Task: structure prediction
Amino acid sequence: MKRLILAASATLALAGMAVADPAAGTWQTEPGDTGGYLHVAIAPCGAQVCGTIKAAYDKNGAKQSDYEHAGKRMLWDMQPGGDGSYSGGQIWAPDSGKTYGSKMSLAGNTLTVKGCVAGGLICRGQAWKRVN
Result:
């Protein structure tokens, strides 16, 4: 019986590792107009990937504890393509309050995140760096 329980536990642990998304973690955005930046926590949400604003920092790297958008969802419904690419999702731009179609691509510790209009023909993006 002990062997059965150990085997089941090992199988579940390995299955959990297999479904861990490579983009999961905390990412630092590029600095905005004021030099400040965000940390965005990306994690699976169902079969998709979502991102939530974890913290905001000013141009000197000081955490802004009163940032009004902390805890808000910034990315959602990103569908993994299996090759480091993600598409079909949405991204919310806190600076403008607008939502755009989104796509992402992962290469090492850089996540290129794009917001697009006109069916994906016109995109603006940033290269986010992995924090952890």
In short: The longest helix spans residues 2-18. The longest strand covers residues 48-57. The radius of gyration is 17 Å. The CA atoms of residues 112 and 127 lie 4 Å apart.
